Amino acid sequence: SYVFCTLAITDVGYTMVCYGITAVVSVVTISHVTKHINRLAIMGAGLIFHVCLFCVLYLWKPADDDQPVFYVMTAGWALCDIIWTSQIYNLIALLCGDCYEHAYNAYYMIQAAGLSVAFGYSPFLCTETKVFVVGGTLAVGLVIYSIIELRIQKLKKELISSF
C-alpha cells in the first residue's frame, strides 16, 4: 500500500524486482553465514533489523520524492523475509529429517492461510494497523521459534553429556 498509494501502479513492479534481486543475493549470503554463526544469533539480528523497519514504516510519511526510500525499504523487507524463511526451512529439516514432506506441506498451508487472511482484512484496516498486525504475528512466531530452538540446544547438551 505504501508504493501503490504514494507512487503509481507501475512502480509496484519495479519494487517487486528490487525485492526479488535482494532476496536472491540475501539467500546466497545467509546460506554461507549460517555455516559460521548460531541460528539464534541470526534470528536476533533479523529481529533487530525488522524492528527498525517497522519503526520506519510506522513513522514515515511517504511522498512522491522519496522514491529511493521505497527501494531501500523493499530491499530491507526482502532481507528480513529471507532470514525468517531460511531459518524456518533449516529448523524443519533439522527436526523432521527424512519425513520432511508433511512439515513443509503444513508450513505452506499455514503460509497460504495467513496470506488469505491478510488479503481478506486488507481493505478494512489502515496501513498503520497492518504494520502492528504483522509485527505482532512476527513476535508470536519468534517466541515459538525461540522456544523450539532452545529445546533443541538443551537436547543436544543432554546427548553430549550422556556420552
From TrEMBL:
- Keyword presence, Nucleus: no
Q: Which InterPro entries match?
A: MFS_trans_sf, UNC-93_regulatory
Q: Which UniProt keywords apply?
A: Membrane, Transmembrane, Transmembrane helix
Regions that span the bilayer: 12-33, 40-60, 72-94, 106-125, 131-148
Q: Name the family the entry cites.
A: Belongs to the unc-93 family.
Write the protein's name.
UNC93-like protein
**The organism of origin for this protein:** Priapulus caudatus
Lineage per the UniProt record: Eukaryota, Metazoa, Ecdysozoa, Scalidophora, Priapulida
